[in-house]
Amino acid sequence: MESMKSFIKFITISMFTVSLQATSYVYVEEGITLPLQNGSVLYSGSPVEVISKTADSKKVKLIGFVDINNKTKLYATQNLKLLLVESKSLHVEGKKGSFETELSNDFITEDSEEAWEITAERFYEKCTQCHAAKVVDEHTMLEWEGLYGSMNEFAKPTKEDTTYILRFLRAYAKDGIVKEVE
Ligand code: HEC
Questions:
Q1: Distance 157 CA to ligand 1 centre (A)
Q2: How far is the centre of ligand 1, averaged over its atoms, from the C-alpha of 153 (Å)?
Q3: What does the DSSP assignment read for 117-182?
Q4: pLDDT in tens, the chain (182 residues)
Q5: pTM across the whole model
Q6: What ligand 1 atom has the least distance to the C-alpha of 147?
Q7: Whose CA is nearest to atom 38 of ligand 1?
Q8: Cα of 145 from ligand 1 centre, angstroms
């Protein structure tokens, strides 16, 4: 009986530990891409799983979906709208894929807001001039594409604005991968 109790306690603690493990994100201070030495490119804000760590770097894994016709791009979701990694060395299994790399701590944050800040800033700068910021998670990624298109004429975004803002809208969309922190 006593051993059963401690077994249950062990299970409970293990489950708790797993669920407490915070997601980390790729952090880029300037721009939204992080080129790696081997020619691969990571995109800012991409969620990563920390596999192991040293004092100043971490081994991280990114998981997602690949286009079966172009196995060099890893996306966050099945609709292939939000890019995480471009690399010739993705590990691909069917529609799913993963990528592992060693990253300096400078490029990793546990704060999703920090990770997405550069794109969020662009959205607030460009999209609150005429009306209050629209609630991003009220629409899906696809809906946002249409809405964004209808704002082109008003907002006159540069190509870079569009890249940043669409990335932000897709990440925080109803079917996106991050939630706004209250
Ligand atoms: C120059 C002014 C202006 C800017 C800048 C602007 N908007 Fe708008 N937006 C409007 C006006 C005017 C409307 C209402 C008329 C309409 O729906 O066409 C509107 C409506 C909207 C709607 C509601 C549309 C609907 O069909 O319900 C969304 C969503 C939206 N804007 C998003 C954005 C986003 C995202 C940006 C940044 C890229 C942006 N807006 C920048 C003027 C602007």
A1: 12
A2: 10
A3: HHHHHHHHHHHSSSSPPP-GGGS-HHHHHHHHHHHHHHH---HHHHHHHHHHHHHHSTTSS-----
A4: 556 666 555 555 544 444 445 699 999 999 999 999 999 999 999 999 999 999 999 999 999 999 999 999 999 999 999 999 999 999 999 999 999 999 999 999 999 999 999 999 999 999 999 999 999 999 999 999 999 999 999 999 999 999 999 999 999 999 999 988 76
A5: 0.88
A6: 29
A7: 127
A8: 13
